């Protein structure tokens, strides 16, 4: 019996895993929109990621003493990564109080294209002309969606605050994605996730306390516990575990394409379970975002092949 760290699925299973990951990410957005009136965003985010960290602790506790020096050496970066991952999750949850799950899912789909920007700013990775056009197309798609295709809204800059928060969350995750490689590989996948989840949970804890004291506390109910357990264990841990296992077989380039399924699943689930409506501006914006992703990814592959 192979350990989870060494498990390598067959290609068919790997593609099922990456599609399943996209489905779980979309499900998370729809659930958060569906329960936004019942659960406070920061409190739910804290307990979701803290629970995931506790579950991981049961797996990695034997490794932690041997990794203590590495953790101490990189604690600044770990804290930053945790804040970007968990903090962005809280921002998206808060944004879903004001916008729809469809908008949140479609804006989230721009992440593969927008990731090029922090990579250029932080690592000075060269951006090709094709990638620049792709980024502009993705941003154009976002503006079409958040303005609802209305030029008056665009010119007056009267955007939905929830859409802006969703965009901020996506940019936070993009910076996280481009900074993660700075952690030493010797930490190991499971330990890396544990310290990032824990650091991220602790970074939003002060905001959780303020939210509980001045706005609304986390409800103590069976339904709330069930939602947190699903978000923490199934979508966070389960999704990232499947993603990591699939990468060993199909590689990041092929796996990233499957992130385009997130808006497909998200829109479908939002229409079925939340009764949301799909409009023409959604399709137009999604088309531009999809074009941007294709241009950025294809140009990245072509450049890597030529190097």
Describe the structure.
The chain is 79% helix and 0% strand. The protein has 307 residues and is mostly helical. The protein has helices at residues 11-34, 41-60, 64-73, 75-95, 101-108, 111-114, 116-123, 129-146, 151-156, 161-179, 189-214, 222-257, 261-274, 280-306. It starts with 10 loop residues before the first helix and ends with a helix. The model has no long low-confidence stretch (mean pLDDT 80). It has 14 helices and no strands. The chain is globular, with a radius of gyration of 19 Å. Helix 1 (11-34) packs across helix 13 and helix 2 crosses helix 4. The chain has a domain at 100-159 and 277-307.
Q: What's the mean pLDDT score? A: 80
Assembly context of the chains: single chain
Instruction: Provide the succession of SSEs.
Output: HHHHHHHHHHHHHH
* Fraction of residues in H or I helices: over 70%
Strand tally:
0
Low-confidence stretches: none
**Distance between the first and last residues' Cα:** 39 Å
Radius of gyration: 19 Å
Count of alpha and pi helical runs: 14
Category from helices, strands and their pairing? mainly alpha
> What share of residues are in beta strands?
under 5%
Shape: globular
User: What's the main sheet like?
Assistant: none
